[in-house]
Amino acid sequence: MTKTTTDQPAAAVAQPPSEQANTGLIAAQQQVIEVGFGNSESYALAKKVGTMYSESTIVPETYRKNIANCMIAVEIANRVGMPVIMVMQNLHIVMGRPSWSSPFLIAMTNNSRRFTPLRFEWIGEEGKDTFGCQCYAKDKESGEVLTGSPVTIAMAKAEGWFGKNGSKWPTMPKQMLMYRSAAFFVRIYAPDLSVGLHTVEEQSDIIDVESRPLDRVKLTRNELPAIEGPTE
């Protein structure tokens, strides 16, 4: 988490002359300031860090010369405990909604060290609608094996994900099954890691759009009827 410290004069304390001579210094009290929006000092620090990132040439284009976007990315990075540059590279916008890339969500969960690395169990018969998988991992504190909700091709079809224009479900079903089951696992057992954000794949299944990294989103050829909410 991004922090800094400031020195504030301590309250005057009477000291024997000998002790003053030995130390030659007045005790200082340190105050920790965290990046955020809770008070003026935290906001000033967030703006300073955001400005630094906005001037970098290795951040995604949407953050360059955009201090506000950088400040939001810094805030989210602090909340999820991940490096700011990684958040910038993996946070996308789908119809105005910030969304994680699925590989990054899996990486965040594994990096938290609360669980053993996420693994996937296949169920049903491949090539059939019953085919699917469920994500599981062991809780490192309790030793309990935690299992997420199963996701199947039948579910994808029933929910309308499979038939979306440009959907990856028909062409790479195993990958999509793992992505979706991992998202289900995190939402149940570690919702604080995702901070309430869905994945790009989930958002794209809900609204038939083509997502782009945090700058603009365009409708697919088969454009949707009017959708409420911000569009870019």
Helix and strand layout, with pairings?
Layout: E1 3-9, H1 17-23, E2 28-34, H2 40-54, H3 67-80, H4 84-90, E3 91-94, E4 97-100, H5 102-112, E5 119-123, E6 132-138, E7 145-147, E8 151-152, H6 153-158, H7 173-189, H8 191-194, H9 200-206, E9 209-210, E10 218-219
Antiparallel strand pairs: 1-2, 3-4, 5-6, 6-7, 6-8, 9-10
Helix pairs in contact: 2-3, 3-4, 5-7
Task: Name the helicity range.
Answer: 25-40%
In the predicted model, the low-confidence regions spanning at least 5 consecutive residues are: 8-12, 23-29, 214-232
Count structural domains.
Answer: 2
SS class: alpha+beta
DSSP E strands, number: 10
Percentage of residues in strands = 15-25%
Question: What string, H for helix and E for strand, traces the elements in order?
Answer: EHEHHHEEHEEEEHHHHEE
Count of alpha and pi helical runs: 9
Average pLDDT across residues?
81
Distance separating the two termini = 31 Å
Task: Specify the overall morphology.
Answer: globular
What Rg is obtained from the alpha carbons, in whole angstroms? 24 Å
Largest sheet: 4 strands, antiparallel
